Amino acid sequence: MLRENQSECYRCGTCCRKGGPALHGPDLELIRSGRIPRKDLITIRRGELVFNPVADGVQPVAVELVKLRGVGSEWSCCYYDTLSRGCMIYDHRPQACESLKCWRPKESLALVEQDCLTRLDIMDSDDPLRVFVKEHEQLCTCPDLGAVPAGLERELEKTLSDLQRLVDNDLLFRQRILDKFDLDLAEELFYFGRPIFQILAGLGVQAVNHPGGVRLKVA
Ligand code: SF4
Ligand code: SF4
Q1: Distance from the CA of 160 to the center of ligand 1, in angstroms?
Q2: One of this protein's Pfam families, by short name (predicted)?
Q3: What is the 3-state secondary structure (H, E, C) of the chain?
Q4: pLDDT by residue (tens digit) across 36-84?
């Protein structure tokens, strides 16, 4: 939390609890060296809604982001130790954390959506999943989430049916690749990000379990 006349970090942990950082070019070495393992990464696909500190609001992200994952269903950074209120990887924390000074945000704001690492930057050149990451982006592109609320208001049935088709394709695609490569949840979240039905939940579109998959409805 920002205090009057602040000139240093008070280790309040607010920034870490808001979520892990997006990774940038210089962070690639942290991944290559194994200091930050792949299992601790999550992909935010282009178009997902995220808080943009420059715009000071939630909006579709213009570029793909790979972030440090949260804990359970929370976004709080997986490397934040609540007991010591400190960073477990402080000496090799990512660039965005190193540059973050909440009392003087200019440097960290300049990093927003700039030189961001993507999945393809991180994956080995011979990773057999590269082709499927690209295919998934083409077949199951993140919808225009900024337009979804107006679509639901104006044409509820058509909008829900379009989203349902996308959600079904996304789930079928994932199942096919998960089975083929025996991927666990952490690997799925890195390679393909969150399923589209989970992303839609933030817009009030609920996914209800159904024998044939999930069915969308407006909450
Ligand atoms: S930089 Fe983060 S941990 Fe430090 S005072 Fe600001 S919000 Fe708190
Ligand atoms: S990597 Fe460390 S400094 Fe960065 S958000 Fe996580 S806990 Fe905080």
Answers
A1: 41
A2: CxxCxxCC
A3: CCCCCCCCCCCCCHHHHHCCCECEHHHHHHHHCCCCCHHHEEEECCCCEEEECCCCEEEECCCCEEEECCECCECCCCCEECCCCEECCHHHCCHHHHHCCCCCCHHHHCCCCCCECCHHHHCCCCCCCHHHHHHHHHHCCCCCHHHHHHHHHHCHHHHHHHHHHHHHHHHHHHHHHHHHHCCCHHHHHHHHCCCHHHHHHCCCEEEEEECCEEEEEEC
A4: 999 999 999 999 999 999 999 999 999 999 999 999 889 999 999 999 9
The pLDDT score that the predictor gives to residue 73 is: 85
Query: Rounded to two decimals, what is the model's pTM?
Result: 0.93
Q: Any idea where the domains of the chain sit in the sequence?
A: 14-120, 124-218
Ligand 2 touching residue 36 (CB < 6 A): no
For atom 1 of ligand 2, the residue with the nearest CA is 93
Query: Is 78 close to ligand 2, i.e. is its CB under 6 Å away?
Result: no
Ligand 1 contact, 15 CB (< 6 A): yes
> From the CA of 105, which ligand is nearest?
1
pLDDT number for residue 2: 58
pLDDT the model gives residue 54: 92
